[in-house]
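Hey team,

Filing this mostly as a record. A colleague (T.K.) asked me to run one chain through the structure pipeline before their review meeting, and I want the input and output archived in the tracker in case anyone asks later how it was produced. No errors, nothing strange. Just documentation.

Input sequence:
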Amino acid sequence: MRKFATLLLIASFNLNSFSQEVILDTKLDKLNSSIRYTFNSENELFIMNSNKKTGESPIFNYLRKFESGTFKDILKDEEFIHFFPIPKKNDFMIVNGKLLSKLNYKFYLDAKQPIVKEVKVGEFLNFYKDFDMYKLNDCDIEFKLSDKYIYEIVSKDDKNYKSNNKIEKEDLYLLKFDINTSKTSKVKIDKPNMTRLKNDSLFNHKVIAYLPEMINNDSFQIITKSVEKEGKSSVFYRSIYDMAGKIIQEKSYTIEPIYGAFHYLYNKFTSRNRLNSKNESTTIEPAYDLDINSHFLDKVTGDFYIFGGTQNKNNPLGFYVYKFNKEDKLVWKKYYKVDDPKGFGERNNSYWTTYSLNTIDFSNEELIFVAKGPVNYNDANSHVFKINKNNGDVNTYKKISSTTKSSLGGTSLSRYSLFDNFILSDKKYANLELLIAQELYPEIKKFVSSISDKKGEDKKHIHAKITKNGIFVFETDNESYYKIVKF
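Output structure:
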């Protein structure tokens, strides 16, 4: 059995006073069978309503945005299967179509009439695969979509273009769809320096992995990493490109685990699932160099954080955080010990550990790190570190004990508005962010406790989303009602 630990990063904010407001309380019925939510880069809330059920995913008919204390209709009586905010205020994209090979993309830019485009999804297959119905809410395509382009970084073989990790032996291309002109172009790009990624002192993998991220309409970056064999040092590289595929800037950050050695890192940027390790080894060898440490960019201040896990003889010990300012100067570095051998450390011995990163993009004085024990155990613990953003000191520490239900019971998630498997009671389930919110703020815990879970009632699923605009709590039984409360 594989065992996991997760690390969740959330930008925190001060709640000097708490108010509670029900912003949506509606029935679920044949005409309103499913509701999903998501947030844009400005932390503004959107909900999608569906009055049709399918075997795979709901077809939505309405799109609403919460602003000025109420929900405003954005789209009405228009069918779509996906909605994605574009990282620019008020811009978004919807997708419709029955076949994966033939989808219509509608781009709503600057509140004008939609631009309707038919994109060859086959060329952008990995882009589309990021739209995961099982995630239900908050799909993240921030690094592949702007108000001008859809893009992928691909390699080329003799037959076609494809997304993969063959950066060392194959040429790389920027595959770019221009929304306004409907033209798709493929531009050969400069490759990052390969010599810095392979030598006798480093973990040398069969495949050198890379991570592309869009920065804005004019530039993107490719991230690569090197890790020395003893797991005591890593270099984090950022190659900055213009949209013609030329490298215009190189940045590098030398990272050490501070205490112990690097532990395997799994996050939304890498999606790796393999590890070569020996039980008594003093280091854990990652499947790819990207699997060591992760990062978080504060888009308001330009500050850049790199963090990851540490271990000794495969036992997780804690995590480190490095903060760099927008000039790439080190501001501070800290190590945070997780003192929980049974719930976090010893169980992971000789197994790979995962760390997933979640960010909330706004500036404040604190960051919250949550180090979570192995998810394949039903009694995993979560360790909440609220740290001072200016110096890295711990302002608040909380330990959260939780249990999970691992089985979906054969139920199709397509009919669900909310789903998660953290058990609050026999009839109430939550997401991890709800557990964090109610532990930090008693008012939310009191509200969650007041939700009925009597025998004979349908199971309740409760989500929380922490944003700069407040904490939103979503509640439903997926059968008869859907409710949103803003704190």
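Quick notes for T.K.: The longest strand covers residues 70-80. The chain is about 5% helix and 45% strand.
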